[in-house]
Amino acid sequence: QVQLQESGPGLVKPSQTLSLTCTVSGGSITTSYYYWSWIRQPPGKGLEWMGAIAYDGSTYYSPSLKSHTSISRDNAKNTVYLQMNSLKPEDTAVYYCNAVGSWGQGTQVTVSS
Prior knowledge:
By secondary structure, the protein is an all-beta fold. Helices cover 0% and strands 51% of the residues. The chain starts with a strand and ends with a strand.
């Protein structure tokens, strides 16, 4: 069973860049037809799909976030990354990594000065 573990800085200032890591175990991120997504949930709101990276390295983004979001991976480390720039307070959320029906525990990101 695939297990996902998100990690990140917790607190980021407005206009700064956020970098999150999703460490994967129990399966390879290059396994055919697996898609590794980032999903976030702002306080009091629903889940928002942000984007994904596929088994072949192809990337897909939500149109509303595409301009300041980047998803990448390190095959050797079996890790997926999320980077967002120009952060705003409304980017405050719990950020999740998701794939093949598995979810990480999420990592809280607060954007505040």
